[in-house]
Amino acid sequence: MKLPLYILLFVCLFFYGCKKKHEAPIDIVNEWMGKEIFFPQNTQCYSINNDSISFSSLLKKEFKILFYVNSDDCFKCKARLADWNKLIYNFNELYSDKVSFLFFYHIKKEEKDEVYKLLEYERFYYPVIIDQANAINQLNNFPIEESFQCFLLNKENKVISIGNPTINNHVLSLYKRYITKKKKTLFE
Question: In 3D, which of 38, 43, 40, 61 has the Cα closest to residue 158?
Answer without folding.
Answer: 38
